[in-house]
């Protein structure tokens, strides 16, 4: 079992907020902000969305994703990730991903746009990293946030 990332652009809110309505059977996504991280999905209403352009990737096991996230943190600060979690700096690049759930959450288009920009700004640092899996996952997240920034979202499931 691991972390699956699903993303889409041009999502349409159905107006239906009844979880038990069966909308998932017709290809819609149930969107609900993680109550521990509501700010990254503040621009999304709770309910069923019909995704437009979509994609997905496997971010690995939860353990490997957390190791990847530690490496991402190390790209932008010398502080250990657990120190960042205890005292998050809102100006730190990737902070909304570093201090985010590893299993159940959604990132709305505004936070996606910020993360897409940060991934683009720091992509040049990949040339100094000798870890192809890290680099591949970095590029997958970059694409997911670019797509999600287009009136969509990125789901962590």
Structure description:
It is built from five helices and seven strands. The protein is an alpha+beta fold. The strands form two sheets. Strands 5-1-7-6 form a four-stranded antiparallel beta sheet. The chain has a three-stranded antiparallel beta sheet with strand order 2-4-3, with no helix packed on it. The chain starts with a strand and ends with a strand. The mean pLDDT is 95.
Number of strands: 7
What is the first-to-last residue Cα distance? Answer: 10 Å
Question: Percent of residues in beta strands?
Answer: 15-25%
Structural class: alpha+beta
Report the oligomer.
single chain
- The radius of gyration is 15 Å
What is the overall pLDDT average?
95
Report the helical percentage: 25-40%
Contiguous helical run count: 5
Basic shape: globular
**Spans of 5+ residues with little confidence (pLDDT < 50)?**
none
**Sheet with the most strands, sense and barrel status:** 4 strands, antiparallel
Strand line-up across the major sheet: 5-1-7-6
Please trace the helix and strand order, writing H or E for each element. EEEEEHHHEHHE
Q: Characteristics of this structure?
A:
alpha+beta, 157 residues
Concise account of the structure shown:
This protein has five helices and seven strands, in the order E-E-E-E-E-H-H-H-E-H-H-E. It is an alpha+beta fold.
Q: What's the topology here?
A:
Layout: E1 2-8, E2 12-13, E3 29-31, E4 47-50, E5 54-61, H1 62-76, H2 81-86, H3 95-98, E6 105-107, H4 109-122, H5 132-148, E7 153-156
Antiparallel strand pairs: 1-5, 1-7, 2-4, 3-4, 6-7
């Amino acid at each position: 079992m691991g972390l699956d990332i699903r993303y889409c652009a041009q999502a349409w809110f159905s107006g239906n907020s009844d979880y038990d309505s069966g909308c998932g059977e017709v290809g819609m996504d149930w969107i609900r902000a993680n109550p521990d991280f509501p700010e990254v999905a503040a621009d999304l209403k709770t309910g069923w969305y019909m995704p437009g352009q979509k994609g997905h990737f496997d971010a690995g096991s939860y353990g490997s994703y957390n190791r990847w996230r530690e490496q991402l943190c190390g790209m932008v600060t010398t502080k250990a990730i657990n120190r960042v979690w205890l005292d998050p700096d809102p100006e730190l690049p990737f902070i909304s991903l570093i201090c985010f759930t590893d299993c159940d959450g959604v990132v709305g288009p505004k936070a996606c746009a910020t993360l897409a920009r940060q991934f683009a700004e720091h992509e040049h640092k990949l040339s100094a990293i000798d870890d192809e899996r890290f680099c591949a996952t970095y590029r997958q997240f970059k694409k997911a946030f670019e797509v999600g920034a287009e009136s969509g979202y990125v789901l962590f499931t």
